[in-house]
Amino acid sequence: MKKMLNKANLYWLLFCVGGYALLMGLMSAGIIDAVNQTVIQTIIVNIILAISLNLIIGITGQFSLGHAGFMCVGAYSAGVMLKQIGGLNGFFIGILIGMVINAVLALIVAIPTLRLKGDYLAIATLGFGEIIRIIVLNMDITNGAAGLVLPRVVDFTILFVFMVVALLIVVNFTRSAAGRACISIREDEIASEAMGINTTKYKVIAFVIGALIASWAGALYAGNFYVINPGMFTYSKSIDILVIVVFGGMGSMTGSVISAVVLGFINSFLQSFSNMRMIIYGLALVMIMVFRPSGLLGTREFKFSSLFKRFTKKKEASQ
Amino acid sequence: MTILKVSDLTRNFGGLCAVNNVNMEIDEQELIGLIGPNGAGKTTLFNLLTGVYEPSSGKIELNVDGQMKSIGGMKPYAVTRLGLARTFQNIRLFKDLSVLDNVKIAMHKNIKYGVLAGIFRLPAFYAEEEKVEKEAINLLKIVRLDHKKDEFAKNLPYGEQRRLEIARALATHPKILFLDEPAAGMNPQETGELTALIHEIKEKFKVTIILIEHDMSLVMSICERIYVLDYGKCIASGSPEQIKNHPRVIEAYLGEEI
Fold first, then answer.
1. Which of A21, A47, A103, A184 has a 20 to 30 A CA-CA distance from B143?
2. Is residue A308 part of a domain?
3. Is B64 helix (H, G, I), strand (E, B) or coil?
C-alpha cells in the first residue's frame, strides 16, 4: 500500500483530478464553447483508441489494421442496448456485451492470425475489420446502412473516467512482467521465445486487452455522438487511429495522448478551410514525419519521477 | 548422473542431412565442447536441443527431477522452462532495451504474479518486482556489467554484449547452458576473461555447460569432454588430449595425408 502512494503516483492523481476540475470549470463557465467541447469529446475517444492500438502495435509489435472493427462492435453493442433498454443502465449493459463479443472475436482472430508477421498480419486484420462492418451493415437489429440514432447518455465525467481507467490498465500492463514479455516480442521474437516466454500467449493477451479497450471507445462514441452507422467504421478509421499512434511515437503512451490532442485541434482548426482541409492535414503529417521520423516522443514516456530527478540534479548543480 | 541424453538424432533439410545419427550422453555439471569445421551441423544440433527445430528422427531426453523426459519437438519456450538456456551465435539481445531489462525479461518464467496482479498492482506485484530487480543486479554483477545497467544493450561493446547474453541466459535458472560461439570476435584478452567467467559460472550455479567454439585454445583449456562433428556426423568424442591426436579429427580439419 505504501508503494502505491509514492510521490509520482500522488502527482499523477493530482494531475488527473486537476485536469478534470479545470476542464469541467472551463466548460461550465462557458469559456470552452460547445464546438470545442465536441472537439474534447472526440479527443478523449481517440486517446482511448490510440492507447489500445499502441498496446498491440507499439508495445507488442503486431501490426493490426482491424481496430475499427473492434470499435464497431463496442459502438453497436452499446447502441443496440441503448435502443432496447435505454438510459445509462442500457449503456453499461451494452459495454459489457460489447466486451464479451470483442473478447471472443479477438481470440478467434488472434490465435490463427498472430502466427503471421508484418504485412501479412496487417492484411488479415484489415479483412477482419471489413467483415465486422459488412455483418453490421446487413443485420436488422443494427438498422443496416442507415445506422442508429441514439440519445446522448454519456457526459464529460464518464468519458474522462473511462479514459483514465484505460490509461491505467494499459500503462500498468506495460510495466509489469507481462508487458516486458510483450516488449521482448517486439524486440526479437526468437530470443524472447528462447528466454522461456510463450510468445503466442502474450501476443493474444495484448490483442485481447487492446480489443476490449477499443470496445469502450466505440461505446463511448455511440453514447456521446447521437448517431452511428457502418460507414464510420471502415478501414480508413483504422488508419486514422494508426496515424495517431505513429505520430505520437510507437510504444509511447504519453506520445499517443499528446498526438491525439494535437491532431484533434489541428483537425478542428482546419474545419474552416473546407476543401483544403485534408490536403493541409496530410501535408502537416508529412512534415512532422520528416522532422520527427520516430514520432513526437519516440518510445519515451513522461514520468514524474524522472522530472524530480532532473529537478534535484539542477538544484545540486546550482549549490 | 546423466542430465541430457541424445540418441540417434537426425535432422534433414530436404536432401541435406544436417545432423546424422548423433548420440550424446552428458552428465551433470560437465563442461562439454562441441567443435567441427564450418557447416558441420553444430548450430543445427543446438537448435534441435533447444527446440528451434523438430528432429526428423531420434530422441532427446532431459533429466527433470530424476526422470528422463523426452523434449524433442517441444517449443523453445517450453524447453527453456524445463531448464535449458542458450546464447546465440549472432548476438540476439533486445537491443533497444536497457541492460537491466534484458535480464529481467529472461526471469519471466520465475515471476509468480499474473497479468491481473500486474494491471491492478496487487501487493504480489511489488514484492516480486523487488526480488526480480535484486536478482537481476546480482547477475549483472557476476558478469561485471552492473555499472552499465541503465544503458541500451546496443551501446555496449561487443565483448560486453556477449557477457550480457550469458547473464540473460543465466536469469532463466538453467540446468544446462548452451553457449554458441561465446568467444567469436573477441581479442585474446577478452577470451581470457571469458574463460575465467565460464569457470566462475560453472562453480557458482552448478550448471552443465555445452559450448560451440572455434577458438581451440579456449576449448582445449576448459572443456572436460569434446564432441567433434563433421558433415552432421559425430566423428569423435573424448578428452581434449584424445581429440587433439584423433586421426579422424585431424583429417576433418586438415585433410587426408597423401
1. A184
2. no
3. strand
DSSP H helical segments within A114-147, as ranges? Answer: 118-137
Chain A environment of B77 (Cβ under 8 Å): 193-199
- Residue (of A67, A48, A164, A61) closest to A117 by Cα position: A61
Q: With an 8 Å Cβ cutoff, is A208 touching chain B?
A: no
**Where does the pLDDT of residue A313 fall: very low under 50, low under 70, confident under 90, or very high at 90 and above?**
low
Q: Which residues of chain B lie closer than 8 angstroms to A184, CB-CB?
A: 94, 97, 105
**A263/A265 Cα distance (integer angstroms):** 5
DSSP A209-263: HHHHHHHHHHHHHHHHSSEE-GGGGSHHHHHHHHHHHHHH-TT-HHHHHHHHHHH
Chain B neighbors of A60, CB-CB under 8 A: none
% residues pLDDT > 70 (chain A): 96
The answer to whether A252 contacts chain B (CB < 8 Å) is no
Evaluate whether residue B214 is within a structural domain: yes
Residue B176: other Cβ atoms inside 10 A: 25
Interface pTM (ipTM) of the complex?
Answer: 0.90
The confidence score (pLDDT) of residue A237 equals 92
Compute the average pLDDT of residues B200-205: 92
Separation between Cα atoms, residue A26 and residue A20, nearest integer Å: 10
Q: How near does any CA of chain B get to the CA of A181, in Å?
A: 6
Is residue A192 assigned to a domain? Answer: yes
| Total domains present in chain A | 1
Which residues constitute the domain of residue B240?
2-83+174-254
Rounded to an integer, the average pLDDT of A152-159 is: 92
Which residues in chain A have Cβ-Cβ distances shorter than 8 Å to B93? 188, 191
Between the ranges A51-55, A249-253, B148-152, where is the mean pLDDT highest? Answer: A51-55
* A40 pLDDT above the threshold of 70: yes
Residue A55 lies in a domain: yes
CATH number of the structural domain spanning residue B245: 3.40.50.300
Residue A27: how many CB atoms within 10 A of its CB? 16
- Under 8 Å CB pairs connecting chains A and B tally to 100
**Three cell numbers at B76?**
523453445
Residue B149 lies in a domain: no
| pLDDT per position as a tens digit, B64-121 | 888 888 998 899 999 999 999 999 989 999 999 999 999 999 999 888 888 898 888 8
Note whether residue B179 is domain-resident: yes
Kindly determine whether residue B119 and residue A192, on different chains, have CB atoms separated by under 8 Å. Answer: no
pLDDT surpassing 90 at residue A172: yes
Q: Tell me which residue range forms the domain holding A49.
A: 13-27+34-233
Let me know if residue B77 belongs to a domain: yes
Confidence band (pLDDT; 50, 70, 90) for A166?
A: very high
Quick check: B96 and A299 CB within 8 A?
yes
**Does residue A3 belong to any structural domain of this protein?**
no
Residue A190 touches chain B, beta carbons under 8 Å = yes
Which residue of A178, A183, A191 is in closest CB contact with B92? A191
The per-residue pLDDT for range B132-164, each reduced to its tens digit, is 999 999 999 999 999 998 999 999 998 899 999
pLDDT at residue A319 tops 60: no
**Number of compact structural domains in chain B:** 1
Residues of B in contact with A183 (CB under 8 A): 94, 97, 101, 105
